[in-house]
Amino acid sequence: MSALFNFQSLLLVILLMICTCTYVRAVAPRLIDRNKEGFLGLFWMSARIGERLSPYVALACISMAVTLLIQ
Question: For this UniProt entry, which segments traverse the membrane (predicted)?
Answer without folding.
Answer: 53-70
